[in-house]
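WARN  no MSA supplied for this record, continuing single-sequence
INFO  ligand: calcium ion
INFO  echoing inputs
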Amino acid sequence: MRYLALLLPAVALLSACSSQPKPAPAEPHGNPFKGNGGFLLEPSHSGAVLGGDFANNQAAEAFIDKMVRKHGFDRQQLHNVLAQAKNLDWIVRLMDRQAPTTTTQGPVGPNGAWIRYRSKFITPDNVQNGVAFWNQYQDALQRAEKTYGVPPEIIVGIIGVETRWGRVMGKTRILDALATLSFNYPRRAEYFSGELETFLLMAREEDDDPLELRGSFAGAMGYGQFMPSAFKQYAVDFNGDGHINLWDPVDAIGSVAHYFQEHGWLTNGTVAVEANGQAPGLESGFKTRYTVAQLAAAGLTPVIPLDNNQQVSLLKFDMGTRYQYWYGLPNFYAITRYNHSNHYAMAVWQLGLAVKQAR
Ligand SMILES: [Ca+2]
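INFO  complex generated
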């Protein structure tokens, strides 16, 4: 259905112009891509120049050309929308600060890095807020587990770490964020212009006003902070109202669960198992692969038995005075598909478990 819908908009726009006797009534927050009595002009007949912050920006012009050619967007409407997009220099500065460098070697630990990270998320207030969310959306969480095989604690953990269950979903206009990163940030322009393309398609399909949607400075949206590409691939209409709305908690619950199902979540599998012992000489992280026997030879034993032939990753968490080692199982890796970070994945899981235990 989704793929079919993506192929149809050009046809839908044409038929909207030719078959409707009257223009659609104006809505107070109308979608600028729909209605308003606009003409679908041949590209060669629309010569208006892009104004606003991205005027004379060649990447923006090329993007508009592509959207007209590939997806049948109305050039004038795209000009109208993108002329209202703001170039936000602070986003470029933030992205540069987060850019990977080749000298990421941190200070010699242990210095408590994991304790500090965990304490941002696993707090009594946060756990209580998670309990309230779980109780309120219990039915949707159970239905998501039944449909996708992903348990409530993982969905609750993700939405908690991402947005504190909808409290912090971002206030940046998505259009401004994605236009800035597409047209004025060459290092990631290819990725972000793909996201902007998908974002505008989403707005058209879902009848959202692209000038109104807000989220993170990188363009992540809603309860689960989906990028537009994640919306396209994994978001679902889980409350059955005919629209996929990332700002609707029930749609977000189904979409997060679907994301995990598609990223290899193993139903009823655990996430990680703590180890007794220390293995300072071994490389660690979610990308590492060891057999349980290899780790036993290095001096680690699991606190609960693991299949000896199982492939695991070795996880190492800085507890301040020592390192805590864990066997990372496939479901730990699945959580890192949401955000490629050992700390992130462990915090999601432990927050979800803390909320579960507090219910
Ligand atoms: Ca929905």
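The first strand starts at residue 172 and ends at 173.
INFO  checksum written, moving to next record
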